[in-house]
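Hi both,

Apologies for the delay on this - the queue was longer than expected. I finally got the zinc ion-bound model through. Below you'll find the protein sequence and the ligand SMILES exactly as submitted, and right after that the C-alpha cells for the full complex including the ligand.
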Amino acid sequence: MPILARMLPAPLTMEVRRGAIAQLGSLLADSRVASSGQVAVAVGPNQGDRIAAIIAPSLGDAKVFRVAAGTVDAAIALGGDLRKGAFEAVIGIGGGKTIDTTKYAASLAGIPMVAVATNLSHDGICSPVASLVHDGGKPSFGVPMPLAIMVDLDFVHDAPPPLVRAGVGDVLANLSAIEDWQLSRVERGEPIDGVAISMARTAAEAVLGRSDSVESDAFLTVLAEALILSGMSMVIAGSSRPASGGDHEIMHAVDQLFPRTANHGELAGIGTAFCFFLREDAHRLGQVTGCLRQHGLPVTPGEVGLSNEQFTEAVMLAPNTRPGRYTILEHLRLTEDEVRAKVEDYVRAVGR
Ligand SMILES: [Zn+2]
C-alpha cells in the first residue's frame, strides 16, 4: 500500500520553561542528540559568562566558543572551529544573532545543531533560514532546521523588553504572508501548502487572542510556541513563504535604506499592518494594530523615527528585496505618488 500521509520534519524535542539551560546536559543525553562524543557550545558576547557558569555542572566537558555573532564571517570562522574539533553536535545559546550564526556554522561543519533561545525577538528559533550580515546587506541562507529547541524563560524575562515584544510583530506577519501566498495562487497559479498555512495561521491566532503580555510566563510560552510553529511551517513549505510576505519586504527595505531603525519583529509588525491597510481589510487591520498596541509595539513609521517620506521610499524599494515573491505590493504596483498618499492615509487611520 502506498504511504498515504506526508512525513513532516520536526525537532526531536521542544522545551519552553524556566531553568532550561541548566538542564541541557540531561536533555542532550535523553534525546540522544549527543550521547558519547564531545559537544560544542556557541554563546554570544553579552551573556557568555553567565551561560558558561550555568551549563558547567551538566556540560562540564563541552567546549565553549564565544562568537561575535551575526555575520557570515563569524559563522565561517565558527564552522572552521567546529570542523577541526570533530564535535558530535553544537548548541547555540543566545538571541537570534547567535542562533543564526550557529545554524549556519553547523551546516558548514555538517553537524546537528541545538537551538537554545534566550529571547523571543523573531521566528528564527526553529526556522530553516539564517539571516546574516554580509557585504553590507543581510541575506537569508537556507540551513537545516535545529535538531532540538529549548527556550529558557528565565533568560527571556531578563532580555530587553523590546526584543521580547518584537516576536509578536514577527508572528503576526504570518497573517499577512498567508494572504500574499493565497493572492499569488489566484493571480499566478503558485502552489500553496495548506498544512504549512494552518500551522503559520494557528500560531498567529494564538498570540492575537491573548489578553496578557510579556510579563506573564503563560504568554511567553504561547509566544515561544508560536514562533517555533512558524519556523516549522517554513520547513514544511520549503521556504519562508508562510511567514514572510510584503510585510517582510518592507522590513528588509527599511533595514537596507535606514539601517538600525528598529529590530526585525518591530518592523515586520508595522509592515503587516500597512499591508492589511493596502488590502482594505479593516477587520484584520484593527486586530493587528490592536495587538501591536497591546504589547507596546510601534504601529506607524513615526513611532520608529521614520518620516512618511522615508517609509514611502522603503515601500517603493520593498519588492526588489525579494525578487520573484508575489505579494500585495507587487499586485497593486502603486506609483510613488500613490504610495505616498497611502502612507499618509495609513498614518491618519491608525496613528494615535
Ligand atoms: Zn520574520
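Main takeaway for now: The longest strand covers residues 89-94.

I'll put the files on the shared drive as well.

H.
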